[in-house]
Amino acid sequence: MAKIVDLDFPDYHAVVKNYHSESDRAAAVLAGSYLENQLGLFIKSVTAEDKNKNEWFAANGPFATFDQRITAAYAFKLIPEYVKNNFNNIRDIRNRFAHHPTVIDFDDNLITDRINKLNVPDNLIPEIPISKRDKYLIAISLAVSAMQSYINKRKKANDDAPSKP
């Protein structure tokens, strides 16, 4: 992914509605790409104001790829290790779906292995197990929600701060 798109909670809810009508491949790629974009917005919200800031997220910038964003967020202590691991597993799953030359689903061995490594409960409600696809989407939803909440709090704090003369 190159540039980031300024999306928020209503945008995410609109995208989530689409997941349910999509194939496993489409849902995995869309959700993973949304998380990649959200991580870019999260990093952008804590970086210095600079007229060239958007270039940092462009094709050759230091935050251009999902991997670079994950590495930077962890290196600068914006996310803990378990979140970094979740993001790397989500990235691997998304990439497997995006680049596999044949039709695959969440029962693919590599995908199952990565799903099993996600730090998300297997059943949020006792006696109702969740599918691998849902576990993947829940992991993304939790991360997107947490980052969007943080961005909103920072924005509100900045809006409420007295302006400098």
In short:
With 165 residues, the chain is mostly helical. Helices cover 61% and strands 0% of the residues.
Describe this structure in words.
With 165 residues, this protein is mainly alpha-helical. Helices cover 61% and strands 0% of the residues. The chain contains six helices and no strands. It has helices spanning 9-19, 24-46, 66-75, 81-99, 109-117, 132-160. The relative contact order is 0.15.
Helices, by number, come to: 6
In whole angstroms, how far apart are the ends? 38 Å
Q: Would you list the SSEs in sequence order as H and E?
A: HHHHHH
Gross geometry? globular
Helix content: 55-70%
Radius of gyration from CA coordinates: 17 Å
Low-pLDDT runs of 5+ residues are none
What's the overall average pLDDT, rounded?
Answer: 88
Mind summarizing the main beta sheet? none
β-strand percent reads under 5%
Structural class by sheet pairing and helices: mainly alpha
Report the strand count: 0
